[in-house]
Amino acid sequence: MIKEILLRIINFIYPITCCLCGKDLEAISQYKVCDKCKESFSKIKGNICDKCGISLDSEESLCYVCKKDLKAYSFDKLRAVYLYKGNLRKLVLKFKYSNRIFLYKDFAFEMSNLIKEYNFLRTADFIIPVPLNIFRRIKRGYNQAELLAQEVSVNIGIPMLKNVLLRGKVTKPQFKLSKFERKKNIQSSFTIKNKNTIKNKTILIVDDIATTCSTVSVCAGVLKRSGAKNVYVLTLARD
Ligand SMILES: [Zn+2]
Ligand SMILES: [Zn+2]
């Protein structure tokens, strides 16, 4: 009660508006996004590629990339909640670059629901967030993938590991490199510690967005070479 009154007073002095459309929000809104904008996020539904989770127009079971080479991605399967476009894209970019933490509990809730939908995701022994390198982590103050992973871990009851997959700086500037060299370069920035923890285990990698899937694929490859049995990926959004 007192909390609510205080919030109303604060809201009178500093009105809260939706960070996407600018509409005034209720004083007690937990997040800075109005319901209408929230409803505008499009979930991935209908037919998807069984391997990489991309939305498909056809009834086929694999997308063009996966059909051409089933090993194009090093993970076993990827699933994502939303399409990475429109208001959701705007919000994720804010979440990522403007030092503000938006909606991550709601997002993690949706991601947890997806785990309940797909049996194979539930078989994970551990959840591992895609790490940021230490400099970016300090600069930003948080790792958005870790925030989501932590919340999902609590919701689902699968432990999260933070001390296994580590990320250093890429050694060479990416733009100078060929596609193959780029992959090698990203690969060399990830290291594995405490290998025994993941030996023969099923890992669920969590990240916020998968556009080209290259980062999560590299992470999966590194984990598999270090002994992980299966590696699945769960992201908030997918292109
Ligand atoms: Zn809005
Ligand atoms: Zn695919």
- First-last Cα distance: 43 Å
In round numbers, the mean pLDDT is 88
Helix content: 25-40%
The CATH architecture of the largest domain comes to: 3-Layer(aba) Sandwich
Bound molecules: zinc ion
> Could you give the count of β-strands?
6
- Helix vs. strand class: alpha/beta
As for the CATH topology of the largest domain, it is Rossmann fold
How are the strands ordered across the major sheet? 1-6-5-2
Number of helices: 10
CATH class of the largest domain: Alpha Beta
Order of helices and strands: HHHEHHHEHHEHEEHE
The shape is globular
Key attributes of the depicted protein:
four-stranded parallel sheet, about 15% strand, alpha/beta, about 240 residues, 2 domains, Rossmann fold, binds zinc ion
Explain this structure.
The chain has 239 residues and is of the alpha/beta class. It folds into two domains: 1-39, no CATH class; 41-238, Rossmann fold (3-Layer(aba) Sandwich), CATH 3.40.50.2020. The protein has helices spanning 2-13, 35-39, 64-68, 86-97, 104-117, 119-122, 134-140, 144-156, 179-189, 214-225, and strands at residues 77-83, 126-129, 165-167, 190-192, 202-210, 230-238. Helix 5 (104-117) packs across helix 8 (144-156). The N and C termini lie far apart (43 Å). The relative contact order is 0.15. One zinc ion binds at residues 49, 51-52, 54, 62-63, 65-66.
